[in-house]
Design a protein that fits this description.
The chain is of the alpha+beta class and 179 residues long. The chain contains six helices and six strands, in the order αββαβααβααββ. The two termini are 27 Å apart.
């Protein structure tokens, strides 16, 4: 967090209450989605471009404090995603989509969905059965593609991630509400 705040202070959002950090969202601007889809997560920083040259905001990471997120019924990460959508609509003239490569949380542990492939898993119901994918789906994202070799060391998902996009001009489909 410290490193990201020093390097890209403007591209980090934090949600806090009463001095406690509840969650953070990190992103960067990109303009070359085909190269992103052929890359690995460790190389994503090389794709960063200035906001004036960007067509997409790439979500790098979303973290929520487990205790805070639980007490707020999962709203911490959802509120951070909604804030990024509002930010992109209001302040970023060139950005028409927000995107991210999402790691499925329960692919390995899940009963077979569809034919049991990773592709069927992430595309069935837009991933609504998986907590990580469902977070993005609830905020309005749509799974577009499977990215092979995104996280080579991720044995649970065979190194794959799900590329999901949000249309900036569209409101979130299932906005979360804080209690």
């Amino acid at each position: 967090l410290e490193k990201r705040l020093k390097e890209r202070a403007r591209f980090n959002f934090a949600l806090h209450e009463g001095g406690a950090l509840l969650g953070v969202l990190f992103f960067q601007f990109v303009d070359d989605i085909p190269t992103l889809l052929e890359s690995q997560w460790k190389d994503r920083d090389k794709l960063a471009v200035p906001e004036s040259a960007a067509t997409h905001a790439l979500i790098l990471d979303v973290f929520a404090d487990d205790a805070a997120d639980s007490s707020l019924r999962g709203a911490v990460a959802a509120e951070l995603l909604n804030f990024l959508l509002c930010y992109a609509r209001a302040l970023s003239a060139n950005v028409n989509e927000i995107c991210g490569v999402v790691r499925a949380a329960r692919f390995k542990a899940s009963p077979k969905i569809g034919d049991g492939s990773f592709e069927d898993y992430v595309f069935t119901d837009n991933g609504a059965h998986d907590p990580a994918l469902a977070l993005h789906a609830a905020a309005g994202a749509k799974v577009q593609a499977v990215v092979d070799n995104w996280w080579p060391e991720d044995g649970d998902n065979g190194g794959r991630g799900a590329y999901a996009t949000y249309v900036v001009g569209a409101p979130p489909s299932n906005r979360s509400k804080l209690p």
